[in-house]
Amino acid sequence: MNNLRKHFPLIEQYTYLNTAATGLLSEPVFDYQQDKNIDFLVQGSLYRDKEANILTEIREKIAHFFSAEASRVALVPNFSFGFNTLLEGFSAGTKFLLLENDYPSINLAVEARDFNLTYAQIDENLEQNILQKVETEKPEVLALSLVQYLNGIKIDLTFIQELKKKYPQLLIIADGTQYLGTEAFKFAASGIDVLGASAYKWINAGFGNGFFMFSEKAAHQISPKTQGSDSYMGKYKENGLHLLGNLEPGHLNYTNMGSIKIALELQEQIGKEDIEKHLQILSAEAKKKFTHLGLLEESVLNRKEHSTIFNLKGGEKLFQRLTQKDIICSQRGDGIRLSFHYYNTLEDLEALVEVLKK
After folding, report:
1. Helix, strand, coil % (nearest 5) of the chain?
2. Percentage of residues in the chain having pLDDT higher than 90
3. Contact 197, 216 (CB under 8 A)
4. SS3 state of residue 63
């Protein structure tokens, strides 16, 4: 992975442990955006005509990368836009199961509507908590983040598959913003009905782009009223209005959306499995060292597997010390959030630990 660090100039000066806030922009994505903006500058409407097929290419790249159907991949400016649009396709009184203190873009959007709500607790028994609520409360929809933004707790994806088999009528909607780009993932086999993500974090595609993948069941069951000229235009929309068109009612920024394709191609060059293995090693080593220093909460300590996001016990004084040592991280909740991606190394972890020890 070390030879790939050249694509990310910022890490020559800083120890960047903040992908959970903003993923770094790579030079290939930057160069692509520069080239496309120059084309638009000098070509005007001719640029749009030339780029007529780009959205189809992006859709198909996402589908190939995550093992989904291209006809059921929608391009959106960000997760929040797509999720709010999606929620307009549910009738009042629909019963939702949410997670307590999940990412605001999920919970606030659902809570703002006239739905029937119930909640499961996020702790070391997350999966059992969800199962108990499904069995007793019988929700119609489960909406959750695959990885928790505050402490990095990751849902067991095998549990999601088993839950779907046991309760096939339960519609499962997930936010993959803090997950997609960290592991090899196959949407078609996941048991998830709708999976959306903003692409500026672990996919490293910059701002203003995201996507939703959805199952055939979801395509028939969810019907938002959003429409626009682009709801009917382009490949995969020829058969009339459906969920894909509902999620894409108007013009999209070709350059921003195209950045997803370039970012995914870089991950393909590295190798999805290699990225996954590298991050598993980093996560395991980080958890071991943070545990030794007594910096992790019990709910994280007691889980077998973890993501690459950690929230360490510490306040403003520790945060300022890390910042002074050129370690970029975030204050989240009651602690300091650190996150590792494929451009991070064990040397980055050691540099962090040396500061924490002092």
Report:
1. 45, 15, 40
2. 88
3. no
4. helix
State whether the Cα torsion 28-33-39-41 is positive or negative. Answer: negative
Q: Considering the chain, what is the average pLDDT of its residues?
A: 95
Q: Domain 32-268's class?
A: alpha beta
Cα distances from 5 to residues 9, 10, 233, in angstroms, run 7, 9, 40
How sure is the predictor about 5, in pLDDT bands with cuts at 50, 70 and 90? confident
Ranges of each domain in the chain: 2-24+271-357, 32-268
Determine how β-strand 73-76 pairs with β-strand 95-99.
unpaired
Q: Which two tokens stand for residue 211?
A: 């996507």
Q: Which residue has the higher pLDDT, 201 or 2?
A: 201
Which CATH architecture fits 2-24+271-357?
Alpha-Beta Complex (3.90)
pTM equals 0.95
pLDDT in tens, 264-287: 999 999 999 999 999 999 999 999
Q: How many other C-beta atoms lie within 10 A of the C-beta of residue 117?
A: 15
